[in-house]
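User: Structure tokens for this complex, please. No commentary.
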Amino acid sequence: MTTTQSPVDERIVQVGPIAARVLVAGTGEPLLFLHGAGGLFWDPFLDALAREHTVYAVEHPGANVSEDLDHLPGIWELVLFYDELLDTLGLDSVRVVGHSFGGMVAAELAANSPKRVSRLVLIAPIGFWREDHPVPDIAGIPPETLPGLVLADPASPLAAMLTPPADDPQALFEAAMRMASVLHFIWPIPDKGLDRRIHRVSAPVLLVWGERDRLVDPVYAEEFTSRLRDSRLVTIPDAGHLPQLEQGAAVVAPVLGFLAGKDS
Amino acid sequence: MKSIFFHLMPYRDLPADFEERYESIWITPPNTELCDPRKVAQYYQWNLDELELADRLGFDGVGVNEHHQNGYGFMASPNLMAAALARRTPNNSAIMVLGNTLALYAPATRVAEEFAMLDVLSNGRLAAGFPVGTSMDVNFCYGVPPTQTRPRFREAEELIIKAWTQQGPFAFNGRYNQLRYVNPWPQTLQKPHPPVWLAGGGSVETWELAASKNYTYSYLSFFGAKFGKKLMDGFWAKMDELGIDRNPFRAGFAQQICVSETDERAEKEYLEHVTYFFNKCLHIPPYFFEAPGYRTRKSTEFAIKTNQPGAIAAAAALEKNWKTLNEEGFIIAGSPSTVADRLIEVAKTLRVGNLHALLQIGSMPHELTKKNITLFAEEVMPRIRHVWDAEGWTHEWWPSGAANRAVTEPSGAQA
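Assistant:
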């Protein structure tokens, strides 16, 4: 799981006023990947997806060029941005995989353009709010507590990825800018009306949840399964909010199976 | 130099172990546990009495500001306090509302209306403060997305100035304020509008706005002149770069001040209350200070380059004993002559013509506060008032209806 098997091509795709950064790798049917608040990094999970698909992993706009966000005041413009990006890439119909915030955006995209999304994988997506399980405010907690919320094993090497070194202002700044570009769309509560639109999704949906996700509690899966026409849920033991990295093999198998249409 | 008695209106009776038991003085200190409305009733009376005393004793201005869910300042609506002051300041001090946090109000015409009411009610004594606001207030307490903080501020500023200066009704098509009919009754008494006082913590964009709109800028921090020097040097460098004159009345700064008969006595009387302020009132975890996106990329880069995070951390880590607090300039304390000498030095170092004197600090009781205000007014103010006279600048940002006490000649001295 650690070696890159296919070369990753970095492309800049002009979408209206925004220059989108897209990592492309693999062969096969096209797959759009939308990342979470941590940012876009080519990781073993994307490698696994690229074994059977041409993966287009898009960097969420605004992390590097703050002005991008001026063009995207809300979730509606963000969804249209992705819709236009797919036009520009010449992809009429795609499989979409989204993690966390990227899962929310993926669900919104599939609700907006149901015919465009053939299969949808949502890994620990946000987009709903339950008073009995409020999603913690990731900006309003001590940074050192983040691994405990996100990872089943906070001592795992993945923890370093979540918290830039406190004595490196530049790294902290870059991380803050990445986070800002996501908070722009979900502040102060990550419920922006998906419940009013999600019924439009026509694609089969696979939900993946870490059993020990303390950021977005697994009870949130109900919010999706109860509203989607065609969905199934896989829960991953010993995983938190990053199951695709914490328990890669356990996530890759059902995801690839579902994307290949073996599970419906 | 103008002296403004600036009141934060803190909770004066926080529990002794507050900073150990609670996460923060701001946003989350549990209200039912910590904030007793019966005590607050008493504080509000004291606070207003103290501000009114300052007017009687000849301060140039009395200052109030806006914070939310904050134990060191729960003046959620400074306009309510300013309204009370407008009626009870017979000595015609300027009413400095520093200010209304513009990004919180949509439509921002609410601010245009309330400030116009205050300006009329006070007979043209209002200074209209337009702070960008802290991340704590804007993002955490009022739920504005961090990235919208500045765009909302800028749009509100534009709308308010238009509402005050253009003939109504007119339409305003903003991103956050869409109005078919902008036509506030009344417009302001001061023409073209009350002086605008920006207040901030060192954002480059705010300085550029001050320059382009000819607004005055006050650097508000609790860390004194030593820390503020780098920031104010940045402000003046920006003014130079933009071809703006070096009129010291363009700039102001906030300072905690403790005056007593002697330096030794000041320590005896004030140390407890100053310690309360620094230990309890500034008990704010770093993650509340700046939600990601609150500052622009440009200002964040400037902050990193000038090591602001490091300097704040260093300031926060200092042991807050009397000696350090004085040496670092967090407080200016002592006999009237000690205080006056240091204030003159600080004013010259920072090149500022407006002093926001914080004279009620932390748990400081009413009687001691009155003493501090009185000694400052009677023995410090006369010594610092004329610090800029030799340079001959005009204060273009003083409310036109307020008394102009900096003028020594009986009449007509101001241009």
